[in-house]
TrEMBL record:
<keyword id="KW-0449">Lipoprotein</keyword>
<dbReference type="InterPro" id="IPR021308">
    <property type="entry name" value="GfcB"/>
</dbReference>
<dbReference type="InterPro" id="IPR023373">
    <property type="entry name" value="YmcC_sf"/>
</dbReference>
<dbReference type="Pfam" id="PF11102">
    <property type="entry name" value="YjbF"/>
</dbReference>
<protein>
    <submittedName>
        <fullName>YjbF family lipoprotein</fullName>
    </submittedName>
</protein>
């Protein structure tokens, strides 16, 4: 994603965060795009510096974090917000293996993503060791309704990796800006969660809210630069 598109997608992260599938699909479009325009103007102002709007922003706003990251790093970048801690951080690519990119902070907390879909985490505590998501992924990228099974892997207190298979329902939602909302509702073995994605016509996922683990909960992810 180019720089200009990155700031616009930021508001979509906030729109996805904390929403049920009904709330996501019933989002008022005029309000959404009005807020998108405001997010764009705020981020552009902060990057230029000296602007009154930039001065009014808090130093650690998501817009500021994104602007600093884009200015400092020419490579692929994401903005990630961990809901359980309230922390928002920029992450840069430090490696890629078989289409899975590792995005990390300077203290080596990392998210593993395959074209925007979460396949693992590192250094967060209570991490998602790995996720087999191909069944859901195919439907999500195609923006098609259907059923799929995904398996999440977690390391137990004994150091052993254990699978958590869940059944998921994929439901396309309303159009939003550069893409269409898709909801993935999963349940199994006492666990229930709902992932929300903004999916482009080419199957890209510039913005999402995805579940990590029972302890960590959800992370919102925005692709700042692909």
């Amino acid at each position: 994603m180019r720089r200009g598109a990155g700031s616009a997608a930021l508001l979509a992260v906030l729109a996805l965060a904390g929403c049920s599938s009904k709330t996501v699909e019933d989002q008022n479009k005029s309000s959404l795009f009005g807020s998108l325009r405001q997010a764009v103007s705020q981020t552009v102002a902060s990057r230029r510096g000296g602007d009154e709007a930039a001065a009014a922003q808090t130093p650690d706003s998501p817009q500021d974090i994104a602007a600093r990251a884009l200015a400092a790093n020419p490579g692929p970048l994401i903005l990630a917000g961990l809901e359980s801690s309230g922390a928002t951080q920029a992450m840069a690519v430090i490696g890629e293996n078989n289409g899975v990119r590792t995005f990390a902070t300077t203290n080596m907390q990392a998210l593993l993503l395959r074209r925007g879909m979460l396949t693992g985490t590192k250094g967060l505590g209570h991490d998602l060791s790995a996720a087999e998501i191909r069944g859901s992924e195919a439907l999500i990228r195609a923006r098609r309704a259907g059923s799929a099974t995904r398996t999440m892997y977690f390391i137990g207190g004994d150091g052993l990796e254990r699978p958590l298979p869940v059944n998921c329902q994929i439901a396309p939602g309303a159009a939003a800006g550069p893409g269409q909302r898709v909801v993935e509702s999963c349940e199994g073995y006492g666990v229930k969660f709902q992932n929300n994605y903004l999916v482009t016509s080419g199957g890209g996922i510039p913005v999402s809210r995805q579940w990590i683990s029972p302890n960590l909960g959800y992370v919102t992810i925005q692709i700042l630069r692909d």
